Amino acid sequence: MAKQVRITLPKLSEDFETGTFVAWHKKVGDRVEQGEIVAEIMTDKVNLEIESSASGTVQALLVQEEDSVRVGQELAILEC
């Protein structure tokens, strides 16, 4: 039985709370490996690359370019 894994925006520093979603590196149906870069987030200081926390197939992308995202927010769903 397949399980779902949710990719979320991690807390990367004490003062990091929100960012702006920049781009997806994958689309629905793509295979992704654990540790692979799947998205980019822009903060007021730096652009961050978001890695997949598991290997699987992208089932849903939950944010779009220019969306404001917060720490802990779900960005994508993988089926593993």
TrEMBL record:
<dbReference type="Pfam" id="PF00364">
    <property type="entry name" value="Biotin_lipoyl"/>
</dbReference>
<dbReference type="InterPro" id="IPR003016">
    <property type="entry name" value="2-oxoA_DH_lipoyl-BS"/>
</dbReference>
<feature type="domain" description="Lipoyl-binding">
    <location>
        <begin position="4"/>
        <end position="79"/>
    </location>
</feature>
<dbReference type="InterPro" id="IPR011053">
    <property type="entry name" value="Single_hybrid_motif"/>
</dbReference>
<dbReference type="GO" id="GO:0006086">
    <property type="term" value="P:pyruvate decarboxylation to acetyl-CoA"/>
</dbReference>
<protein>
    <recommendedName>
        <fullName>Lipoyl-binding domain-containing protein</fullName>
    </recommendedName>
</protein>
<dbReference type="InterPro" id="IPR000089">
    <property type="entry name" value="Biotin_lipoyl"/>
</dbReference>
<keyword id="KW-0450">Lipoyl</keyword>
<dbReference type="GO" id="GO:0045254">
    <property type="term" value="C:pyruvate dehydrogenase complex"/>
</dbReference>
<dbReference type="InterPro" id="IPR045257">
    <property type="entry name" value="E2/Pdx1"/>
</dbReference>
